Fold these 2 entries.
Entry 1:
Amino acid sequence: MEGSESKYRQSADIPKVYDPEDVEEHWYQEWVDKGLFNADVNSDKKPFTIVIPPPNVTAALHMGHAYNNTIQDIYIRYRRKQGFEALWLPGTDHAGIATQNVVEKELRKTNQSRFDLGREAFVEKVWEWKEQYGNRIIFQLKKMGCSCDWRRERFTMDEGLSRAVREVFIRLYNKGLIYKGKYIINWCPRCGTAISDEEVEYKEVTGHLWYIKYPVKDSDEFLIVATTRPETMLGDTAIAVHPEDGRYKKLIGKTAILPLMNREIPIVPDRQVDPEFGTGAVKVTPAHDPNDFEIGKRHNLRSINILNNDATLNERAGAYAGMDRFAARKKVVADLEAQGLLLKIEEHHHSVGHCHRCDTVIEPLLSEQWFVKMKELAKPAIEVVNDGRLKIHPAERWLKTYINWLENIRDWCISRQLWWGHRIPVYYCQECDQMVASQEPPETCEKCGGHNWKQDEDVLDTWFSSWLWPFSTLGWPEETPDLRYFYPTDLLVTGPDIIFFWVARMVMSGLEFMQEIPFRDVYLNGIVRDQKGRKMSKSLGNGIDPVEIIDKFSADAMRFTLIMLSSEGQDINLAESHFEMGRNFSNKIWNAYRFLAMNLDEPEDNYLDYEDHYQLADRWILSRLQKTIEAVGANLDNFRLNDSLSAVYHFFWHEFCDWYLELIKPRLVQDADAVERQTARSIAVHIMKTAMDLLHPYIPFISEEIYQRLCSGESKSIVVSAWPDAKKELISDKAEAEMTLTQNIISAVRNIRSEMNVPPSSKAELKFKLEDEAKTRLIMENSHYVKQLARVETIEQIPAGEKVRAAAVAVVENAEIFIPLAGLIDLEVEKNRLGKEIQRLEGQIAGLTKKLSNEQFLTRAPQEVVKQEKEKLDNFREKMEKLKANLNQLN
RNA sequence: GGGCGGUUAGCUCAGUUGGCUAGAGCGCUGCGCUCACAUCGCAGAGGUCACAGGUUCAAAUCCUGUACCGCCCACCA
């Protein structure tokens, strides 16, 4: 600091209210400028790596991201301070379908579609969008204080990552794990693309079950089928019944006439039909239902696709061609009814698939797509969690979900009929039917010698690039030093909603392509909801914007609150007012510092030099600090973030501020003894600095600000200052017990004062009776604490037999404490107060007496517990007797 | 049809292997003298731990069942 005047003498200039705005901006810039977030291959250090779940470039970040990224930042900062080479690798995801959708929506505002622009121009537009939102996301992450290595920012469509995507496709293709084929897939008519099974959201809806009469050829009979999608009958190519169904046995092999289309269709036996459901006869539409498709294969049925890509009916639907599927449904039903072929309509509850991205009803459709065979990839991904190589937290909750999905995994449809994404690296020879998967089109076709290639039009599922994220971002397929050093990563923090989409697939790809798990621990954080427990969403308008909260309360306050409200993997319900908690805590820290600054010349924390001068309060707070250090670390290691933060919060506010700072005030005044003064100051500074170290992962900004002020600018940064170690030799259960007695005496006196309405201005005279010599000495030695904090003038021990007139009484441990209140005391109030206390004790005593007279308890419970209970009972009894005796004296 | 989570103070939630008088924050009540802080301090009120059984010396905690809320999975036409 400049000149002879320390800034600590000018503490009057420190504002009473903490203003985070400049502080946060300043330190973030400083950290980046100093390169403190950079991580490089360093053989002297162990790496600790997290790759960010890359946010979609569809929009700005919401509170869920803020929560998720806060957790990641906490672990990165924690490990960095512990001396790891901590890499947090940031980036964003192109989010194929989602991003294409938002850009198309933008275009629609000017009445344009992507087809008006053409593929190239449209993709150009999406890149512009990506620039804008990608930057916004990075801006937001920085604002939250995320300590990412920004030099390493990646995007899933970067050249490097795109190369990795193609490489993976080619390897899997050549291995026979990727194939192209015609199967029933989930088609979103609005997005105009196939989607994977995981992208379908099933919702319970109330629909109808229509019972339709199909005439049996050459008879007067009808076969009645029930369907929830009558329009699909236009594509029917059979009716199926259970082979053992007595009702229909005689019809098997006969022919039915498909109404409206007048097509002859066979009646076939198939065990898949459930005779109990509907009529036990099923219309079979192989092109529009996965089950029917299977039946069709077994019976060699035709597949008639009656739909266009936008879910209007095509020419194969005859008279219904051109109609939308739902209009056609109405018309089909009406026509059937007109012909007397509609038997009845029932209400029917069933689940209907909707597009995960646009909520449109999914249409199962026979279509030629690309798939990945998953069974083989899934096996090792199950093994690594079963043998404990990869841990999921909280395991009880999600492990089963993960395993269950992998055990029942189905092939992954990876082709998308979109423009935004990684183009499938497959080339078709235009001269023959040759098809090759490769990075670039080959020179010549090895089959026909042709040179004319055409690339597949489709792009890949967006997750086909994200599942490579932990290693594609580190340079794969090159064997880079980064990859060798930082992979496998250590921790993945993400939401449980993408276990299938992302987590499980990353495990599979990591094991397949790196022969190693992608991360050792997966922490699944809860979902941020609104006050009523609803998911935050744009459509509900109940979202809370992180940037708004930061502007209003500060990033520290936001982070603090989110973590305080979270418990392991549990969802958190959030209201804006909750952020006051974080703001208030920052302000508390600020003022604790302000108080210290007022009393400091230079902030020295050489507290160990003054060991000979420690008082009880000093030994106590140092002991509490060590235990807090242990608790903060242990809870972090166990993914109990809120317990970790609560521990340091409670220590700082309710032990350090409420008690320690209050207790040392007399020692800080100018005319106090110099050594005593320095003892207290150095300890206070040490506690303050250490608390900042412990708090830094949670509230990085204010902790740095305070830390720097306390270091007089000598330290580089709290970002890299060493994480505190608990000093076992400073832990003292004795000091803690003695301090507890002192605190309890103070609280008891305060309670009497408050209950008896003793004005603060009047000082009390405390008398106490106590048989225990050691404790008596303890009380006398620390009487200055009681005097100071309980507004007591004198403390005096009196003989056990002495009567104290007109005094309020309390029993703390085995000491009777009297506050004589001559003239002030209202006998009735005091009687009442004691009566209540006695009553409470009587209840406790009754319970304990019963317990201790129970033979079973005495013999079966651990002796330690029995002993504890006995002691407890003795204490209660002693306390009650003392109170009763004093109550009697009042009469 | 399976699986998972939740039900504890007016509100939002802790309570880790069963064992002190079930805790915190907010809110509420009373009082605020004091050289950090009213975004504060001190004191206090407030809970039959969803319900019913069971196991145990002992249950908020373990088991069984019920109710309600929420999520996930499953091809029931």
Note: Residues 1-10 of chain A have pLDDT under 50 and may be disordered.
Entry 2:
Amino acid sequence: MNKELPKAYEPQQYEDAIYKRWEDSGYFTPEACPPWVDNPDSREPYSIMMPPPNVTGVLHLGHALENTLMDVMARYQRMNGKKVLLLPGTDHAAVATQARVEKNLVEAGMKNPRLELGREGLLEKIREYAEQSKTTILSQIKKMGTSADWSRLAYTFDEERSKIVNIVFKKMYDDGLIYRGYRVVNWSVKGQSTSSDDELAYIERKSKLYTFKYSESFPIPIATTRPETKLGDTAVAVHPEGRWKEYVGQEFVIENFGQAGHTLRLKIIADENVDDSFGTGALGVTTAHSPIDFEMYLKQKALGNDIGLIQVIGKDGLMTKEAGTKYEGKTVEEAREQVVDWLRAEGLLIEEQEIDQSVATSDRFGDIIESIPMTQWFVDVNKEIPGRGKSLKELMREAVTIGLDGNAKKKTIVNPERFEKSYLAWVDNLYDWCISRQIWWGHRVPVWYCQGAKNKEQGTTCQYVVTSEKLKACPECGGNIAQDEDTLDTWFSSGMWPFATLGGPEHKDFKTFFPTSWMQMGYEIVSLWMARMILFSAYLFNDIPFKDAYVHGILRDKDGRKFSKSLKNGIDPLDVIKEYGTDALRFSLMVGVAPGNDSRFYMEKVEAGRNLVNKLWNMSRFMLMTVDKEQGTMNKPVRRRGGDQVRPEAKTLADQWILKKLDTLVTGVTKNLDSFDFSYAAESLRDFTWNDLADWYLEIAKIEGGKAEVLNYILNTLLKLWHPYTPFVTEAIWQEVYGEEQLLMVAPWPTIQRSEDVIGTEEQFELMKRIVTGVRNLRSEYNIEPAKKVAVTISAGKQIELLQKNVEILKGMARLENCTIEKTIAKPDGAVGFIESEVEVFMDLSGSVDLEKEKERIQKEIALIEPYVISLEKKLANDEFVNNAPAAVVEGEKKKLEEAREKLKKLQEQLGVLTK
RNA sequence: GGGUUUAUAGCUCAGUUGGUUAGAGCGCUACAUUGACAUUGUAGAGGUCAGAAGUUCGAAUCUUCUUAGACCCACCA
């Protein structure tokens, strides 16, 4: 090394330049192949599609977590020589983005942006906002160190993706899976749009439940929380075998209900779903304003009984003309009050009761959802797909259970497994999916309505045309046409993300990378998103969108609360990066998290990450300096295949031990990453780095010397193992070692080259450690200054050879000026001691030993070990244990007992000498 | 109402298919500090693994129940 590295790692000085080097190197693209790969043409593809962040603003910590997960995986696979594609992109996020921009405009003083700007004007504003947001988001993703292929950047709303959306719509329409229908849908008055069942947020609120009769003579009491909708009731449903069954089939005429000025005709219908034992055992059927009641309407209609629909609430959220002249134009709250007043005045109100009610609200616009009947576009999830013999629902189920068509290779594995259950529960409860929205930001429904006068005259039937192409005139009659005003649900397009990003089935990327390898997502969108991706892939290609789904928990703040705008507890990842560096942030996001569980984010964790990164930096600095000093020049480590090293020969016990530990680490981390145990891998890396390497081996290296080769090898391997987690610092160090011509990013992942089994290495080294720790412990207990050197006598027994051989370690690590090792030696006068296995260690206190204190200490130890010995004896005396437990376990217990007994015996001897 | 999930050291969390005298990080206590690192080192204190019962030779780990929390789903009017 020619230049001295700074004492502390300063991320800000390296990160941007390193990212640029990576990007410039071309290795973010799957086509670039590292030189050490033997067969570049047959590399296994590995693809991850980045869940596209919404272009609604800036990234938050949740995105940082996802980026880290994906990047750890991508980097790991890339170092394994795979053809890795991590494809980045963003989502136009239809409703979310439009709602955000409209809100901004209103805050800036506009009253009604849609009205004031018009469709094109508002779209222009949203487009501007989206573009800006996109730029910010992409630069943030880069700051996170994400090794994404920017040449393939995608956007759910770009031309290529939009084209695919239209093609898929058309195909599903042709297959009869998309239909236009008049249904009761979820309507947000504030957003002036429908929303799917999955875009609702339920809130708990106090509400009143009114029990009433429609009229004096009406026999059945009815309960409702929405009296104003009763103006639109067309039937009363009872259980076919219930207490009201005698009335089934009758029709009651209620004159002037609620003084509405019109007549209600209520048919009494029978429905199995009415619970006779609940409430009044009857249900006022509001066919137009309740999805369930609407179902009854359809059911009755199919039976030839048209009970009719009366829409009393309009799209503007106000009562309609049909509600009656008294109510027309009133808000639902006003109408409710008036109906209740009237019921009360007429003596028809039987009971008022306060109840807790959960009401649906629009998760984007926040207002309470009204159920209103209208004509919309739907995906039929229950209909049999032509030629397939199954419905979309069945495909969604197969894809995660038996695999599509029972083919286990076409099965998406959900990790952790438990999320499979919630996914399936959701699939089973799925209703037809309303995909049309009345907002403007999004893919326009690719349907054109014929408006030509010509066709009317001719009596033709060309009402509308569904096509994936843009139309200018009606292809049937040549008449004028107009495209459907509505746009598509955002999930309709993001559901196609795994293949739309790859250009669709004809594209060569699709052929290489589909199905994708791995997809990660938060559990809150498993049903929303994963299900839709599976739906489309299964339907279009009879394949799964990804082989493994990794579901992670959500990130919470220090107090376990969700991050939210209203709580103002948000943390900008860029601020964290600025202060602590990207590596520290990444590490803090990965560690201490069980798969699928929520985790908390707090600065102490990032600090710990920063400290670790700094430790890594300084250890490397030390290793490089040592290598330099020992070899006299800047060392270019022995390289094979561009940086893969040969395992050096172990010269000492410590060498054997650390190399063995390193082998174990390589195996462990590899296994953990293969099974998505990100936290485990990171923690074992930290343990090795800090506890084994820094605290022991490097200290011993200072004592033993001659470590150039071993240190080279360890550093090389360790940097590779750390790289997926802390890419910047490891690359920075790598650069110091190997110069700029090589990138750690594409160095080969370490493998175990030789597992040299020196029996007992670990036990022997552990004994050394325990002796050292024991001495340090005694020093601390007897308040001997750390700097002061002490003399130690060891009665080593069988271990005499081991200890004699490694006496320098003992002397160095425990700061001994003298260390006498004998096979057996009695405790010298004026010494204190401890026992490790059969080894007794005595420390000379030069007469200043406090006999009482030493006695106390030994007694305390005996008190600790005695019950232990007894419990082991009991265990081993138990035949059932000996017979049933695995032999290895029994052996282990026997050994423990032997050692404990030995120790106890020696403690008692020592105590005996003291009390004499 | 149904389902999922959590409860382990002061705090945040691990504990990989039942076999440890129960672990980590942070915090805490004491001591240390000129050569890799105070973004540090050494040593230490701290837990009847929410509670109860059961299965087992053996339970933090499996079963049942109880308590407290979180989340998801649900048409009980």
Note: Chain A is about 45% helix and 15% strand.
